[in-house]
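retry 2 of 3: previous attempt timed out while embedding fructose -6-phosphate. Reduced batch size to 1 and resubmitted. Inputs unchanged:
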Amino acid sequence: MCGIICYVGKDKAEPILIEGLKRLEYRGYDSAGLAVQDGDQICCHRAKGKIIELEKKIGDMTIPGNTGIAHTRWATHGEPTEANAHPHSDNDGNVFVIHNGIIENYYSLKKNLKKSGAVFKSETDTEVLAHLIASYFDGDLNKAVRQTMAKVEGTFGMAVIHKQVPDEIVVARRGSPLIIGVSDGGTFAASDVSAMVRYTNKVVHLNDNELATITADDFTISTGQAQTVQRSAETVEWAAEDADLNGFPHFMLKEIYEQPDTIQNAIRGRIDRGEGVPKLGGLSPVWEQLKECRHIVIVACGTSYYAGCEAKYVFEKLTEIDVTVALASEFRYRKLNFAPNTFIIAMSQSGETADTLAAIREARRKGASLLGIVNVVGSSIARETDAGVYNHAGPEIGVASTKIFISQLTVLTLMALLLGRHQNLSLTDGVETIRALEALPDQVKDILSKANDIQAIAEKYHKHGNWLFLGRKYGYPIAMEGALKLKEISYIHAEGYAAGEMKHGPIALINPKMPTVAIIFQDSMYEKMISNIQEIKSRRGPIIAIATEGDEKIRELADDVIYIPKTLDILNPILSVVPCQLLAYYCAQLLGRNIDKPRNLAKSVTVE
Ligand code: F6R
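retry 2 succeeded.
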């Protein structure tokens, strides 16, 4: 989705802005632009398509100026054209604005602005911001932005410069993330840390309905009611190299290979081996209430939702807690009725997914207690929940979520184990689970060492246009996640089904051209999965099995087998998703897809 990077400081702004825009590319976008201020001159360039098109436009031109704002746009109002690309300006070209989010009342605002002489040059909702700010401006840019905030409905993260106010950028947020970055060389503002991580890891988060004026060596934050806010910078753990490819052809592959460390980072410092109990400090603010909890609702979207579906089985195994999993985009439209002492867990890599945020706000209104499992420290979901656990997985840049799924499963297992140990789970079971968790990083490495075999399977099947993924119990959410991975990056149609549902419909599709990926573990579901595989075989459907090491029977039935090491039933999902990720990756690579930036997709979905 749209991205923002701004800089005011000692250095020339243009190269810093271009570098920042490139760091934001992973979010998905279809046009880009920047405006750089030098005294009372502002130079603006925009281009449809990738950042390289913007660079071509700028060509050999020197753009002087140490203050600038830049944007990648993901079209919502108006097609992806140069005219609709940000920054947008007022009639006189005094004000330049970039904006993430949606101005919901833009139509009526536009009508009124037109009556007072504003000439609109784009189809965007954003342009009303430029005209409104210009109409309020009396020499104080911060005030004009504040007055504009009072007029607009909807969501925004915005940054504004004005010809008559050199060396100053005003930024504001409501619903769309905006952070300030502080460094010796200047001050930054961005929609996410990765845009400025090369220059600083000291960040200040803006809250909703706050605005800030940033200058080369200072920033001041105030509320929409002009109350000054004191907030100091926090240090984020991310390093510049986290946002580099480090020799991998794609971020997705790099992130798949990071997964042994991802698991390690999720459990480091969080377990007491002797007692078989995790220690999750982030839950302490609500611990007294949480340990009595009997109902949990997990709300999330996409891959995070599938991690929630998996967690349901894990909680059922380890605790007495009843878990419901809800798609965040549907949850808020239901008539919500929570049993006493229900906890909502919002799970999100970015911590900014609009549907998940809206879901927790609705749950809050209904009096539920909120927990977050979030990767991005200080993100909106992290701040709007009562307590929670961070993934500590570093930035996930590939649009397709990989390492976060594994991290979410690990964190949820720790959480279930912690609650289970305060309920009926025995010391022996606690210790056994922790041992098995600690063995996972090496087991994932073992699977990664078989990447060539998985690539060979992808070579065999990547031209097949329809795939089925089947699993039961712990294997079912992996079937859904495996199908999602394949379809989103290779554009191969794939469906993830509960294997027991096959005979209620999907079996009609089985034929020699439709491969089935069967997730089959040596657990209580084994014989039933074997029956499903037989049913597919007898209809001559090709089978790729993801099975447990030592399972010889499956070799006789499946056309291809990818083995995963033996672990506890509840941890099989963590291992079995890795071959699914690699299979999707290699199919997409063989089909020549844009793996890190699949068409139409955005990394952080900040609109509903
Ligand atoms: C799929 C994918 C998406 C996200 C979803 C939620 O690979 O990345 O389905 O999982 O958009 O995003 P977060 O976890 O940031 O809330």
